[in-house]
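Input:
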Amino acid sequence: MKNIAVLVSGGGTNLQALIDAEKSGIIKGGRITCVIASNPEAYALERAKNNGISTRIIPRKEYADVASYTKAVTDALLEEKADLVVYAGFMTILDEQIVKAFPYKMMNVHPALIPSFCGKGFYGLHVHEAALEKGVKLSGATVHFVTEVCDGGPIIMQKAVPVENGDTPETLQRRIMEQAEWKILPEAVSLFCQDKIKVVDGKAIITE
Ligand code: GAR
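Output:
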């Protein structure tokens, strides 16, 4: 059984999707053992507590720089003996220390089809604002391994979602969450926990 640690900053609907997937048996070979929040107010913490999952709060504001914050998060994950680290709406940038400690053992869900609308500054509603501004007809979500390059690691899974006339950033965000993020994140986690993902030449390959 792999230990899954989930990093959160906000509402935690992706965490909830993981909790539900674990309960319904969609996630095989792993269990969520710890939730770490960068923000003490994150509602995701309530979701963890309601489901008996241990929580830690490591407030970004209490650390002077990215390096000291990354060290604190990395140390906590090592203490928790995390086998997989999931960034589920984690809005804080960490540096390469954590990538060295968990190489190809961290995955992130991003609310767009990478390489569109990704990288520094593209997070949360900003991603959907940019997609609507461009006028794309399809957007979606991507689950990828976390590397030193922001949103640049090997892509594990993607799912496209149509943009509709009259969409606002909020309606598009909701559709992408419901139709893509909440589905592909648990699937990718389950595949990882069953050792069904390998990285070859910088690309993730799913081996069924
Ligand atoms: C999700 O849409 C997630 O993909 C996005 O923030 C939202 C968090 O929602 N993450 C990023 O933009 C990271 N670059 P949640 O807290 O309800 O899961």
